[in-house]
């Protein structure tokens, strides 16, 4: 039986969600980082990986020094001009504890403005239009990154070579329509690779496959892949690159019998749109294994600790 929340509605709305986020960014919501601010971006799980991607984009675009932390690992003694917290549910324990513990200016991006995060943060950015029924995050996470990326556009701080959100949304239309090849569903293992801002995407891709389909996936910076992780790759396994492929990597993957997936970058999909293809693959693999990708084992929509 198809699962409409993750497989259909929520994945398929991402192009329009990103366009809505870009329009929101253009309206100048209060609390988004200003040029020159020293910013810490925090989240848990998927939100942490989106924080990593944004931090790399913001620094590369010259908008200001930016660090990303798992909320539970935030160094409270370190000084920042702003803490930007990402929490879909608005109830994530580690995020709420951090917001209560810091005296720094704070902004939260959430899909649930009626939850405790509303009282904990100084500013709130409402992304309720991208909320999800599924436990596994897809559209909320990518929409957060689309919003922050569009904000860099409005500030003239989008790094060279990174496409506009409008262009990324057009690529996402293609990703939503992509037919998942049977040979990808049959893979035993995938190593997701990134560089710069796409490192966060690679980490998120690996997590998405593990959550939704119990798949064996790992994620590394592309240049670190040679320093040990390539030993995993073999026939029936793959390396999936987000963004530009480093010189020589294709030959090295081929030499060990692995499959290379490298369809994003200057001549292919926007890397964020390529992440949508991973969403599609995760759902296809879950269906192949008889799993419900909307309700993965041992997980709930929000992690609330006692």
UniProtKB/TrEMBL annotation:
<feature type="domain" description="SIS">
    <location>
        <begin position="29"/>
        <end position="162"/>
    </location>
</feature>
<protein>
    <submittedName>
        <fullName>Fructoselysine-6-P-deglycase FrlB-like protein</fullName>
    </submittedName>
</protein>
<dbReference type="InterPro" id="IPR035490">
    <property type="entry name" value="GlmS/FrlB_SIS"/>
</dbReference>
<dbReference type="InterPro" id="IPR001347">
    <property type="entry name" value="SIS_dom"/>
</dbReference>
<dbReference type="InterPro" id="IPR035466">
    <property type="entry name" value="GlmS/AgaS_SIS"/>
</dbReference>
<keyword id="KW-0677">Repeat</keyword>
<dbReference type="GO" id="GO:1901135">
    <property type="term" value="P:carbohydrate derivative metabolic process"/>
</dbReference>
<dbReference type="GO" id="GO:0097367">
    <property type="term" value="F:carbohydrate derivative binding"/>
</dbReference>
<dbReference type="InterPro" id="IPR046348">
    <property type="entry name" value="SIS_dom_sf"/>
</dbReference>
């Amino acid at each position: 039986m198809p699962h409409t929340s993750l497989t259909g509605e929520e994945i398929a709305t991402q192009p329009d969600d990103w366009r809505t986020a870009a329009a929101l960014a253009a309206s100048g919501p209060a609390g988004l980082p200003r040029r020159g601010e020293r910013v810490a971006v925090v989240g848990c799980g998927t939100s942490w990986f989106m924080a990593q991607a944004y931090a790399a984009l913001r620094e590369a675009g010259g908008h200001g020094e930016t660090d990303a932390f798992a909320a539970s690992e935030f160094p409270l003694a370190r000084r920042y001009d702003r803490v930007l917290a990402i929490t879909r549910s608005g109830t994530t324990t580690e995020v709420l504890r951090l917001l209560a513990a810091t005296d720094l200016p704070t902004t939260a991006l959430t899909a649930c403005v009626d939850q405790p995060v509303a009282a904990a943060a100084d500013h709130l950015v409402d992304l309720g239009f991208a909320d999800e029924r599924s436990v596994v995050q897809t559209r909320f996470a990518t929409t957060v990154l689309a919003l922050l990326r569009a904000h860099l556009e409005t500030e003239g701080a989008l790094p060279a070579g990174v496409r506009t959100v409008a262009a990324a949304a057009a690529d996402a239309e293609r990703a939503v329509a992509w037919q998942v090849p049977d040979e990808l569903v049959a893979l035993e293992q995938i190593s997701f690779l990134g560089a710069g801002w796409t490192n966060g995407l690679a980490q998120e891709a690996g997590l998405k496959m593990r959550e939704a389909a119990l798949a064996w996936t790992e994620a590394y910076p592309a240049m670190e892949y040679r320093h040990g992780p390539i030993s995993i790759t073999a026939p029936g396994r793959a390396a999936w690159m987000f963004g530009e492929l480093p010189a020589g990597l294709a030959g090295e993957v081929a030499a060990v019998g692995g499959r290379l997936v490298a369809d994003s970058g200057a001549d292919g999909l926007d890397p964020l749109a390529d992440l949508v293809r991973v969403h599609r693959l995760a759902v296809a693999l879950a269906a192949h294994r008889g799993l419900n990708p909307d309700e993965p084992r041992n997980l709930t929509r929000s992690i609330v600790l006692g």
